[in-house]
Amino acid sequence: TLGTQTDYRDGEAQTDPYSPEYIVRSGSVPEILTLATLTWGRGLPAGQAAMEIIDRIREKRAWEAALPPMDSPSNIAKRLKMMEAMERKEWAYREEEIDKLQKVKMEVFKKMLQRQEENQNELNAMHLNNHWRNHQKAKEEKIRKIQHDCALMLRKLIAKRKNWMGKLERRHIIREYNDFSSQTYAPLSRIGFFPDNGSDYAVENFYLNTFAGLCELEKSIQPSAQSSVFLLKIKAPKPKCTITKTGYIKRSGRLEAVLAQVHQ
């Protein structure tokens, strides 16, 4: 019921197939010795193509053994005829091999061309999409400009249609002052009016900014109102911070005031 795992597994300890030592008899050439240079993974195990080559080698050896000896003119002629037939057979076999190789190469070339064509089609599609997108942007920009020009021309036509007879009209002051969008309240800059040029919104008052003006204001007040004006009681505002007996503000109070100001 228990299994053990050893340090040396079959897959790790597997080596090339065992080849025992051998002794060749004199005068014999075993066929198996032609495979002595092949090893596992390099020629072994033999596939279909290797078996066909082995069969052809066997046929060629049997054909060499069946050749007639060159001891008479008839045997020589027969030997030449058999050699020519074998040569034609070899050439036919070679042509068949070349045709097979060419078919395999053609298949590889077809796959490569198909892959190249697919890549080129993807690249062309990407270029076409970019080109179409650029044309769409240009078209939208052109349509936007046409719509803007159309609105501008419509406004011009509407303004021109109001006075299609081309008569000179007098200025209607009451209508202009009743309409807050007229030139009286909102003049256009294209006419030459720039409201912000040289504007100074600081108001200077002689009576408030100078001591002499304050004295004149004081003299202009009536005597009955002086009692109510000059006898005003102003209460100092209570400090928002905690003040000590010596009149100083604590550091924590200053921090609270700063935080309250920042929060506000």
Automatic annotation (TrEMBL):
GO terms for cellular component: axoneme. InterPro entries: CFAP91, CFAP91_dom. Residues 4-156 form the CFAP91 domain. It is found in: Cytoplasm, Cytoskeleton, Cilium axoneme. Keywords: Cell projection, Cytoplasm, Cytoskeleton. Its main location: cytoplasm. Belongs to the CFAP91 family. This is Cilia- and flagella-associated protein 91. The gene is Maats1.
